[in-house]
Amino acid sequence: MSIFLDKNSKVIVQGITGAEGSYHTARMMAYGTKIVGGVTPGKGGQKTDQGLPVFDTVRQAVDATGATHTCIFVPPPFAADALYEAYEAGIPFAVCITEGVPVHDVLKVVGATPGMRIVGPNCPGLISPGKSSIGIMPGHVFKEGNVGLISRSGTLTYEVVDLLTRAGLGQSTCVGIGGDPVIGTTFVDCLREFKNDPQTAAVVVCGEIGGSDEEDAAAFIREHMAGMPIVAFIGGRNAPAGKSLGHAGAIISGNFGTPESKIKAFTEAGVPVADRPSAIPALLAERMAATV
Amino acid sequence: MNLMEYQGKELFRRCGIPVPRSHLCKTPGDVAAFIDQNPGKWVIKAQVLMGGRGKAGKIKFATTPAEGKAAAAEIMATPMPPNRQNPTGEPIHCVLVEETLDIAHEAYCAIAIDRTTKRPVVMASRFGGMDVEEVAEKHPESIAKFFVDTAIGYSPFIGRELAFASDLDPGYRKQFPAIVAGLYDLFFRYGAKLVEINPLALTADGKVVASDAKVELDDDALFRHPEFAEWQTALPLDEDETLATASGLGIRNFRRFPGTVGTMANGAGLAMATMDAVKNAGGEIANFLDVGGGANAERVRKCYELVVNHTGAKVFFVNIFGGITRGDEVARGIVQALAETTSRKIPLVIRLTGTNEKEGRKILADAGMTPVETMDEGAQRAVELAAG
User: Fold this and answer.
1) pLDDT along chain A (292 residues), means of 10
2) Which of B 183-212 lie inside 8 A of A, CB atoms?
3) How many folded domains does chain B comprise?
4) CATH number of the domain encompassing residue B267
5) What is the pLDDT of residues B281-305, one digit of tens each?
6) Which residue among B188, B288, B324 sits closest to A138, beta carbon to beta carbon?
7) Which three-class secondary structure string do you get for chain B?
8) Of B236, B258, B284, at which residue does a domain stop?
9) Among 3.40.50.720, 3.90.470.10, 1.20.210.10, 3.40.630.30, what is the CATH number of A1-122?
């Protein structure tokens, strides 16, 4: 098993004929993702370079292919519309890669699509190593295994995964949840899935400053995942207050979103917080050895 | 995009939120002329984005044209002094001349986005006119919250419930729901991330008026409101944001600090972790820099020059994890940047891994540079070089 995504997941790409969409479709297929088609309004009936069918609407794509997952590469003004369309066509799982989606669009679409899981927006996607990948993560650094990983960042995820892989710790599923203030899938949503996933034996939570997702995650772990080995990392410990660094969500205001508050929450939940990414594998291995 | 008080109040007016009569002035002479034409008791308020105007002496009262002129001249003579959130201070280009209210009570009202519930949250408190973070610390129970279901939107009971829950003075009760309705309208109509009235005044004659206005619009939604382009250019970017823009970076991608280790990484998360790594190695960072995806030679050169020319960096630590970004392209960029730049040379520490890392390392080696293996090792080396 794995969470959210496995080798049978049938994936369509919304915006498949665009520059980003076509490039990453080829990469996902090369990784082994079962891409069954794509959608670009007005280009229905065409085939992509890989021979995939292009549809005008998501409903046509679902009817013809039985798609279960969608990966969205449309420009920001159209991202919410693409999500509504996927929802109405009955797709239960959407990954929105698009960066710069208006926050009100996200507020409305997550409120209006109960039952559909949205990952992102502004995220690198997710990967169940050895099985399938949706999004833009570089497949070659991942290795199949039993560690679940959740992260708000892209390249930092690759850094941590690379360290895990080199330490012989493969991954069940890695989810890049995105760095925006409002996102469809939070740490807690992923933790709940990892808790019930037979393949996942341990979890790494890569947080960063800003918001209270990490505190919520710590509370969930304390309450529901006491037995599972979990290690956390908080990026941006040296960031100044009142300024976002890169991610719109990575901002400390007042006492809100500080690294101290997050570290305290994890520590109180019995989750060690690595002071640097390179300390994660050893901490995790230690925890895993202790639980066996 | 943060708005100044007068801009926020313009949006308040459009959404039916009562605001005091006011006039924007660019010079002390304008203030004198306005008061001359409009006798009365006026308050002169510096128009800046920073908070703490009262404490900084940037809000003054005047009843005659001469007083108004003197007050405005004094306010505009010096910039807003720096504080923790804004270490550079802020110049004052205009003042708002506003009718003085006879205030009986001050309250607080705001709408923000709650990340956890993914809903707009309306907040009210009977403690107005003070720093809301201080209120949250000292009187957390006084802040009443309502999480709005966006599918239903605003309904007047929300305002009533909040007025009672936050124990607002009874004088507020009748007008409060309409004010929250106006705020909610503004919040959605203009795609705001935050709208705040602090203080929301109850005057001696029983009127509820927004005495101040704080509005933050979503930069990602500005394409829907081209009319704000004019305001955007009127709003000063801070120095770091100006430098970032001039180097082709996003305004959030560059930030300076007082240290000596310059940094550059691809991706905000990795860039923050890079700063942390330098701190862990005992060094002081000169900057945060997220070069973004697909860093090419031109971009790398500009970033090098940005750090070398505008920070106190004695060494430049480049930390690239090639995912979509290809290591060989970055390596070529670094070599080309150093060959082309006319800026002073500082030692480089390069950590390059991920996609095409072998090719990238070879390019660097051929140019006489030795890349380090890990982020920690790179940080260590950079800190040593900065100290030596």
Assistant:
1) 94 95 94 97 94 97 98 96 98 96 94 95 96 94 96 91 95 95 95 97 93 92 95 85 58 65 94 94 95 73
2) 188, 191, 193
3) 3
4) 3.40.50.261
5) 999 999 999 988 766 778 888 899 9
6) B324
7) CECCHHHHHHHHHHCCCCCCCEEEECCHHHHHHHHHHCCCCEEEEECCCCCCCCCCCCEEEECCHHHHHHHHHHHHHCCECCCCCCCCCECCCCEEEEECCCEEEEEEEEEEEECCCCEEEEEEECCCCCCHHHHHHHCHHHCEEEECCCCCCCCHHHHHHHHHHCCCCHHHCCCHHHHHHHHHHHHHHCCEEEEEEEEEEEECCCCEEECCCEEEECHHHHHHCHHHHHHHHHCCCCHHHHHHHHCCCCCCCEEECCCCEEEEECCHHHHHHHHHHHHHCCCCECEEEECCCCCCHHHHHHHHHHHHHHCCCCEEEEEEEECCCCHHHHHHHHHHHHHHCCCCCCCEEEEEEECCHHHHHHHHHHCCCCCECCHHHHHHHHHHHHHC
8) B236
9) 3.40.50.720
Asked if B375's CB is within 8 angstroms of A278's CB, the reply is yes
From the list B218, B255, B354, the residue facing A103 with the nearest CB is B218
The verdict on B218 and B357 lying in the same domain is: no
**Shortest alpha-carbon distance between residue B252 and chain A (Å):** 5
**pLDDT the model gives residue A246:** 59
Check if the interface score ipTM surpasses 0.90: no
**Quick one: closest CA in B to A215, which residue?**
B116
The parent domain of residue B251 ranges over 239-387
Q: What is the pLDDT of residue A254?
A: 47
Q: What is the pLDDT of residue A80?
A: 97
* CB atoms A158 and B376 under 8 Å: no
Q: Are B197 and B284 in a shared domain?
A: no
A138-292 folds as Rossmann fold (3.40.50)
Task: Write out the residue limits of the CATH 3.40.50.720 domain(s) in chain A.
Answer: 1-122
More confident residue, A200 or B248: A200
Whether residue B125 sits in one domain with residue B51: no
Distance from CA of B238 to the nearest CA of A (A): 11
pLDDT in the model for residue B221: 92
